[in-house]
Amino acid sequence: MMTFQGSHILSVSQFDREAISKILSVSAQMAPYAMRQKRCHVLEGAILNNLFFEPSTRTRVSFGAAFNLLGGFVRETVGEENSSLSKGESLFDTARVISGYSDVIAMRHPKMHSVSEFAQGSNVPVINGGDGANEHPTQALLDLFTIQSEMTPHNKTLDGINITLMGDLKHGRTVHSLSKLLSLYNDVNITMIAPNELQMPDNVISTLENAGHKVTLTDKIEGNLACDVIYQTRIQQERFASPDEADLYRGHFSLNKEIYRQYCKDHTVIMHPLPRDSRPEANELDTDLNDLDNLAIFRQAQNGVLVRMALFALTLGVEDKLTQYEKPITWHSNKNI
Ligand code: CP
Question: For ligand 1, atom 1, which residue shows the shortest CA distance?
Fold first, then answer.
């Protein structure tokens, strides 16, 4: 199995099934701390530097919350304009300097492979929070954790999963990373619904097909939603040449309660990495689904805290010390996601 301690987390390609199993099991151990049933201060004194050079809500805040939940301190730089990258400093120099101020770094950047370039200059572990349209490995891990936990009540596992990915599969880094991780499991049946121009990149399809999985490419919703999991995505306007070009595709594959009732199975779980685009012209996941038990999107986002806590514990080598550093909760808390 890969060595986690001291390692960068840059791509899902660095994981095998054993490593993923370890991450998911440590993630599950984080639930009592994330749900405020107990505290854990195993990272007391440690410093996370969160460097986010592209907008984010979930990834940035959940990285920070995850580190705080393990007792560590968080420092943040948000926006390239607030960093000396805007003065021409290289990613290497920035990494070398920031790693001197940190025990671990989480980074998001709009350029593909930029986080790997940054990691070459870092003396501490760097975790990729999304690099352009390339990868979003921590999202894929939390997606796997979510699929596993949502399927357990239905006696289903990641092996044999029947999943439909929808939307902007060309630019959506979360679906690239998730597909690569799913390729490690057995008998995955994966349907990809997208306009032809926004279909999944060939290299991702090849990874799945070479691993023996059934991949169906289509631009039609009808007949393709009777699956275990629908993974809906947003049109990634920021990756198009212009907003006008993105407009051509917005609203094509909106999912609402009527479509769900018509085409899905009783147990079909709906996921989305979020943010969903709730503007009327897009509305890929209608708010009329909000009262559906099988809408897993908020549980999915919450699972991001568990998975990121696990990655910090593993990369900093404290995953076996959690219970030694527990404390009771002293305040009222009724967390219920
Ligand atoms: N899923 C995700 O990456 O969300 P943010 O862009 O809000 O971090």
Answer: 273
Entry field: residues in the chain: 337
Choice from 50, 59, 231, 277 to test ligand 1 binding pocket (greatest atom count within 8 A of CB): 59
Burial 257-290 (b: 16+ CB within 10 A, else e): eebbeebbeeebbbbbbbebbeeeebbbbbeebe
pLDDT tens digits in sequence order for the chain, 337 residues long: 789 999 999 999 999 999 999 999 999 999 999 999 999 999 999 999 999 999 999 999 999 999 999 999 999 999 999 999 999 999 999 999 999 999 999 999 999 999 999 999 999 999 999 999 899 999 999 999 999 999 999 999 999 999 999 999 999 999 999 999 999 999 999 999 999 999 999 999 999 999 999 999 999 999 999 999 999 999 988 889 898 899 888 888 899 999 999 999 999 999 999 999 999 989 999 999 999 999 999 999 999 999 999 999 999 999 999 999 999 999 988 776 5
Residues with CB under 6 A from ligand 1: 56-59, 130, 139, 273-275
**Atom 4 of ligand 1 has which residue's CA nearest to it?**
58
Read off the pTM: 0.95
Distance CA 52, CA 39 (A): 27
